[in-house]
Amino acid sequence: MSPENKPSAASLPLTGFLVVLVVCLLWGGSIPTIKVSENGIPPLVAATGRITLATLLLFIYARIIKEPVMLPRQDLRHGVLLGVFFGLTMLFLYLGLVFTNAARGTIFYSTKPFWVAVGAHFIMTQDRLNLRKLAGLSLALIGVYLTFWSPGATGLETDWGNLMEIGAALFFSATALYTKWLSNREKLGHFQTLFPMMLFSIPILLVSTLILEWSLPIKFYLIDLLAFGYQSLGAQFLAYIMWFWLIHRYPVSQVASFTFLVPLVGVILSAIFLGEPTPPALWLGLALVGAGIILVNLPKKGPETTQITPSVSKSS
Predict the structure, then answer these.
(1) What is the pTM of this model?
(2) Cβ distance 266 to 311 under 8 Å?
């Protein structure tokens, strides 16, 4: 029985809710720390170093707990494709933040659950769009539009940055959906999809770094190194282990619905630590995106419904 159809997936237990909450907090701080590290470390250098370090740590951790990390030979092509999707995610995420601020980047990148729900409609038979979900998509699109054109978001460079963050969200959503499809198709541990995804993304990031940033200087300021450490250890290594554990066990759209907390955390941290402006239009856009994501991923009521609120039940 696939994880999508397990009885334990009928509701998100307390353990699952707490795990997804920690993931949201870690990811919420990711984009502000990327902006911080840009001062001394070129963005693609940071992205390549982040994934390389996290991949090494994941390999060591998996060896310690004796978990397999590589896909079977016949499925290796799926790992390569996951790596391509994820490499493009990181490429657009880091480059986009050169041309936009952290608050807007967080909101645009956090449209991931919105795109996951759209993709799930076409590839998962039990996760179709309906009128309620379409209303949620419309709300989210209005929120994205307001955020895109809110004060301080004008100019060609900023527009390109915003579009890159949306592109990063699309590629991340493709990664999540492909991972869910693969885990339903094959009996795989979450390390067996996470490790190849990270490993095969490194060549894409490395080549991009050599082409675009070969002449840029690197300055190792303490604050930049601390920000880079957070990205590698917290937002990548720890958060992705927990994220893949979640999507291997619960419906991907159900888990994704809780990540509306990510942009809220990101916007608040961007205002506190980076001093970025947060005009009313930005907050309104954030509220509409969050409401749209909740509507899109809220399960329909009935005998086979899945609860979106955390329930105190035995974790699978």
Answers:
(1) 0.82
(2) no
